[in-house]
Amino acid sequence: MKNIETTVNQMPTLTWNWLDMNRARIKYEVDIKGNGKPSVSRLPEGVLYEENGIGIAMSLKPVVTGMGKNIDTVLQEVETAPSALIIKRGVKVKTPVVMNFDLKNNTGTFSSQIIHAEEGAEITVILNYSSNPKAGGFQTVQTKVYCDRNSRVHLVKVQLLGKNFIQLDDTGSICEEGAFMDVTQIELGGKEIYAGVSSSLTGRSSGFNSDTAYLCRDEQKLDMNYVVTHTGKKTASTMKVKGVVKDTAKKIYRGTIDFRNGCSGSTGDEQEETLLLSPGAVNKNIPVILCDEEDVQGEHGATIGKLGEDVLFYMNARGIKKETAERMMSRAKIKSVADLIPDEKTAARIKKYTDEAFGNE
After folding, report:
1. Phi and psi (nearest 5°) for 244?
2. Distance CA 3, CA 260 (A)
3. Which pLDDT score is estimated for 329?
4. Confidence at residue 313, expressed as pLDDT on a 0 to 100 scale
């Protein structure tokens, strides 16, 4: 058994403690079962995969992740060796590399991956987390992405776990000059989900973009922390989050754009759309812009609430009941992000899950 008691998803700059949003405190006793390794799809030419990437990890720069350094400590304590996916210099991969984590009931797994895109390389990597709908267990996953000069990585994470799973999903990336990092994240299943995403834009004209969709229902808990740190000149970031909170579910979103001294000419934008469908649902969000540089442009906004009366009137006039309209709008939010995933099998998994969650109306 492994006792995990720590804090994760801490904001870079703290706010009032009474809001209970500065960080997430976790305490679990985990029975470690299973090796946590995914099945990996066929590798295109110019792409290498090593199950033990410790040597590669030691040769690369440290990467700050969204959940924070405490997850590094947890993985070290359970002696988890990272796997490594290397995309060779100048290789532009058109077919996504897919890693499937098909988890069994009562498993407790820990795993980590390194994705290293060498200069000028491009790739899409998809991580699918799935299990039996009624299954439960514990999973910790950490993904560190290194984008060398003028490279581009599209990282997709799709979480469709059973209703009793607890998951810690940690992501961090670093982008050198002209590099770009895309993150597409779908959070639909599980009992308690802690997700952190961080990107360090160190190189001139590097960029980051994230699109996240979620569904929180029944008694689910979703805790998210997204941080983009601008240090390079003329860097750009966008973060878009949209989802649904219903029943007695609880969702927290922290989003921080951090403009550091020297990142002149940089831009950042974060937007959130939350649809609240139940009076017992709890939604908390805190968009933050930190600025230590004058020549930057940052924007943030949030739209939170029920369906508008004008929308409901339009639907009712066409014979569509309120409950059906809410399901339609909920599905549309998830689909708008799922459509960004360039893999038919993954898209089919998401559609099947949402069909079961919302019904096939």
Report:
1. -130, 135
2. 37
3. 84
4. 56
> How far is 37 from 151, CA to CA, in rounded Å?
26
- Interatomic CA distance for residues 45 and 91, integer angstroms: 8
Average pLDDT, the chain: 94
172 in Cβ contact with 66 (< 8 Å):
yes
Q: What percent of the chain has pLDDT over 90?
A: 85
CA distance 202 to 200: 6
**SS3 sequence, the chain?**
CEEEEEEECCCCCCCCHHHCCCCEEEEEEECCECCCCCEECCCCCCEEEECCCHHHHHHCCCCCCCCCHHHHHHHHHCCCCCEEEEECCCCECCCCEEEEEEECCCEEEEEEEEEEECCCCEEEEEEEEEECCCCEEEEEEEEEEEECCCCEEEEEEEEECCCEEEEEEEEEEEECCCCEEEEEEEECCCCEEEEEEEEEECCCCCEEEEEEEEEECCCCEEEEEEEEEECCCCCEEEEEEEEEECCCCEEEEEEEEEECCCCCCEEEEEEEEEEECCCCCEEEEEEEEEECCCCEEEEEEEEEECCCHHHHHHHHHCCCCHHHHHHHHHHHHHHHHHCCCCCHHHHHHHHHHHHHHHCCC
Evaluate if pTM is beyond 0.85.
yes
Predicted confidence at residue 220, as pLDDT, reads 97
* Span 175-225, pLDDT tens digits: 999 999 999 999 999 999 999 999 999 999 999 999 999 999 999 999 999
User: Do 248 and 279 meet the contact criterion of CB atoms below 8 Å apart?
Assistant: no
CA-only gyration radius of the chain, Å:
20
Mean pLDDT of 325-354: 92
pLDDT reading at 107 higher than 90: yes
